[in-house]
Amino acid sequence: MNIRVAGFLDNSLVNGEGIRSVLFVSGCNHKCVGCHNEVMQDFNYGEDVSKEEILSRIKNNVPIIKGVTFSGGEPFEKAKALTELARSIKELELNIWCYTGYTFEEIFEGKDEDKINLLKSIDVLIDGKFDINLTEDAPKYAGSKNQRIIDVKASLMQKKVILK
Ligand code: SF4
Asked: 118 with 91: CB under 8 angstroms?
């Protein structure tokens, strides 16, 4: 299975806690004003990369990295493929953070099984569209103040958003 990939960072310190590999997927419909990755909104941007290739690149960074971050673009538009990838990443005992323009509630209360399955596969969700007017005092690792750093496992268990 291939995933349309816009970029990959082997080691990053700014996309979640600890040293992390970051996978940027192509395509996003949220159209946030001031988007930092505007070129990645295009679903055709980048190249098709197999799950095996992505996994091998991640494995090259073990044990330096603490986890993997999904970014983009909109990772939840690639929910099925990323859920499979997440399963393999978990076997490496790495945690998974994910950026999304959707809110936790939009995903959790929505009817899209693929998106819900991806949500269940990740540890920390940074949710909501980027708001250029709310960049001051944004939480660490978020772009704007409306975005939340969510403990997904605790939130799913308590059926409400629990911040990390
Ligand atoms: S959700 Fe992210 S990638 Fe999509 S438009 Fe907003 S800032 Fe850009």
From this structure: no
